[in-house]
Design a protein that fits this description.
Length: 135
């Protein structure tokens, strides 16, 4: 099965190392990823998040030097959604790229709303890391 992908990105005036260090910490999710986390805690070696769609588990790719922030989100119904995310260096700045994959049965309107939510989350991350938000 082929999935339709939408790439959503934001440029951040911080180094890719800084952005990766912050965004790769699950405890920071509630500060910038409202579409995924109202609160988060670790339980039995898993990160559990209270998300708009209910209680989910989030599993990030292992720490790496390549800026890979891929993560699996296991929904309340047991379905696991893979989310590819990259932090790419751009001189003293960086670009964060989130690939939103449209799942089977998702309408174009729902996919558009998901893309808007991801874009808002990335803008919140930018504001935090550029010092325009609260840390």
């Amino acid at each position: 099965m082929t999935m339709e992908s939408t790439h959503i990105s934001v440029r951040i005036a911080r180094s890719s190392a800084d952005v990766y260090a912050y965004a790769s910490q699950p405890r920071n999710l509630p500060a910038w990823a409202a579409g995924l986390s109202k609160s988060v805690h670790e339980a039995d070696g898993h990160w559990v998040s209270d998300a708009p769609m209910g209680r989910v588990t989030v599993a990030f790719a292992p720490a790496n030097a390549f800026g890979v922030l891929d993560h699996d989100v296991t929904l309340p119904n047991g379905e696991t959604v893979y989310n590819p995310v990259r932090v790419i260096p751009d001189g003293d700045h960086s670009e964060v790229i989130f690939t939103l994959r449209r799942r089977d049965g998702t309408s174009a309107e729902a996919s558009r709303r998901d893309a808007e939510a991801v874009a808002a989350d990335l803008e919140r991350l930018k504001a935090l890391l550029e010092g325009q938000g609260t840390r």
